[in-house]
Amino acid sequence: MAKILLVDDAAFMRMMIKDTLSKNGYTDLYEAGDGAQAVEKYEEIKPDLVIMDITMPNMDGLEALKAITGKHPDAKVVMCSAMGQEAMVIEAIKLGAKDFIVKPFKPDRILKTVSAVLPQA
């Protein structure tokens, strides 16, 4: 089963994505509360996919994305954004993000994105 790292400074957002994924068979789930923790956790667990918020304290999602894809060009990262962050989403895609999910999250959109980005087992 794929390892998925969920990165958001809002614990309830991580919980919502985790709940959606775990109800659909994804059980190897890890969490980080900001970009700096995401970079550390990425090195530790080498996840198959990272789902990461753009706006976070300490190190934002764009900086963390740049750090991860700079060392691991094949990293699969999906960014989460709020409405009105189109410029940041475009920047994230340029930095190597594979896709993005707009908040508020819809479970179907999360699952569709995860299955499109992860290699099929």
UniProtKB/TrEMBL annotation:
<feature type="modified residue" description="4-aspartylphosphate">
    <location>
        <position position="53"/>
    </location>
</feature>
<protein>
    <recommendedName>
        <fullName>Stage 0 sporulation protein A homolog</fullName>
    </recommendedName>
</protein>
<keyword id="KW-0597">Phosphoprotein</keyword>
<dbReference type="InterPro" id="IPR052048">
    <property type="entry name" value="ST_Response_Regulator"/>
</dbReference>
<dbReference type="InterPro" id="IPR011006">
    <property type="entry name" value="CheY-like_superfamily"/>
</dbReference>
<feature type="domain" description="Response regulatory">
    <location>
        <begin position="3"/>
        <end position="118"/>
    </location>
</feature>
<dbReference type="GO" id="GO:0000160">
    <property type="term" value="P:phosphorelay signal transduction system"/>
</dbReference>
<comment type="function">
    <text>May play the central regulatory role in sporulation. It may be an element of the effector pathway responsible for the activation of sporulation genes in response to nutritional stress. Spo0A may act in concert with spo0H (a sigma factor) to control the expression of some genes that are critical to the sporulation process.</text>
</comment>
<dbReference type="InterPro" id="IPR001789">
    <property type="entry name" value="Sig_transdc_resp-reg_receiver"/>
</dbReference>
<dbReference type="Pfam" id="PF00072">
    <property type="entry name" value="Response_reg"/>
</dbReference>
